[in-house]
Amino acid sequence: MSCAEAPTKPAGRPPEPAAPPRGDWSQAEARAIYDLPFPDLMFRAQAIHRRHFDPTAIETATLLSIKTGGCPEDCGYCSQSARYRTGVKATKLMPREAVLAEARRAKEAGATRFCMGAAWRSPKDRDLDAVCAMVADVKALGLQTCVTLGMLTPAQVGRLAAAGLDYYSHNIDTSPAFYPEIITTRTIDDRLETLGHVRAGGIKVCCGGIVGMGETIDDRIAMLVTLASLPAHPESVPINLWNPVAGTPVMDRAEPAEPIAFVRLVALARILMPASVVRLSAGRQAMSDEWQALCFLAGAGSIFTGDVLLTTANPARSKDAELMARLGLRPAALDAGATRAP
Ligand code: SAM
Ligand code: DTB
Ligand code: SF4
């Protein structure tokens, strides 16, 4: 462990500056960290986490599906692809007022970020007008704004930025090698291209992936190495445990993730991208309290709250509040910067 990662500060001296994030991790280096004895891996992850964040503060974001189902893409894990019989009913884009009402409810329930998701390959310009109005409304409530709408052109990014968008969520989902086994209607390079437009347009990037779709441990690590090799690390890295969806092709090949392997991956994300917020995302309702607690110890600093994610289940707010209380964790302040350690 380098001095820059040391968790304690020598008395009488100013704290050493955190090492600048690296963008040149190799797969072998990342695998060696992942395979460390568990106490060493957790110590290293926690030391880095405490250097960048307050470990007792958990950011809470709420999701709303503003346009559900009927998606032309073939993502093999997703309930919203029109190609699979998953029982999800396709809807039109929600009216602006209804979205605003949901955002108000999320704010009253304590969320700091409101993330709106639409099941599109990419938005039509007419739809983007409506989403820009929603972003402006939600921003005016004092919430951080996030949308996930599929692939974007630079011009579309510009319009979202002008509307006040803080984050764009666009996952790479898995490793470059495993990607074509899960999605064939676009490539991982298409995904990276949109991420480049988002970054160039000055919007913060939320990008992560899914665990438990039948990928190998090396695929999971390669996914994180890909994220850590981007020109700048994503500000947010969601790690989703695949939420089983009957009718999707992944249902036939998924392997339930082993909890310790999942925690190791969270710790690795924390170490490879030290200043990024690692978000424990889908699949929490399948995790025990102890599993989630280990994820927080490994450096996860954010969760989605509310009974549903986009179409699948999430723990009840009351259950999350009770777990946070037992762990002595508190919601992060509205400004994400406030979660940073002093
Ligand atoms: N259509 C947009 C897109 O693909 O970016 C936005 C919505 S999409 C549902 C957002 C992300 O949710 C996906 O990239 C994937 O990582 C995650 N996701 C979708 N279905 C999931 C599931 N069943 N379990 C876990 N994560 C899932
Ligand atoms: C992310 O990585 N997970 C969130 C958010 N980013 C957009 C979405 C999870 C969706 C889980 C499946 C569903 O509820 O339909
Ligand atoms: Fe469509 Fe997004 Fe689901 Fe893929 S993950 S099918 S793009 S909604």
Overview of this structure, please?
With 342 residues, this protein is of the alpha/beta class. The protein has a single domain (36-328), classed as TIM Barrel. The protein contains 12 helices and 10 strands. Strands 1, 2, 3, 4, 5, 6, 7, 8, 9 and 10 form a 10-stranded parallel sheet that branches. Helix 1 crosses helix 8 (217-228) and helix 8 (217-228) packs parallel to helix 10. Residues 1-12 and 336-342 have low confidence and may be disordered. It binds S-adenosylmethionine, 6-(5-methyl-2-OXO-imidazolidin-4-yl)-hexanoic acid and iron/sulfur cluster. 6-(5-methyl-2-OXO-imidazolidin-4-yl)-hexanoic acid (DTB) is lined by residues 63, 79, 115, 117, 148, 169, 171, 208, 238, 240, 243, 281-282, 309-312.
- Residues in β-strands, percent: 5-15%
The overall number of domains is: 1
Please write the CATH class name: Alpha Beta
Largest sheet: 10 strands, parallel
Secondary-structure class: alpha/beta
The CATH superfamily is Aldolase class I
Number of helical runs?
12
Q: Low-confidence parts lasting 5 or more residues at pLDDT below 50? A: 1-12, 336-342
Q: Give the CATH architecture.
A: Alpha-Beta Barrel
- Global mean pLDDT: 92
CATH topology: TIM Barrel
- Distance from N terminus to C terminus (CA atoms, Å) equals 22 Å
- Ligands, deduplicated: S-adenosylmethionine, 6-(5-methyl-2-OXO-imidazolidin-4-yl)-hexanoic acid, iron/sulfur cluster
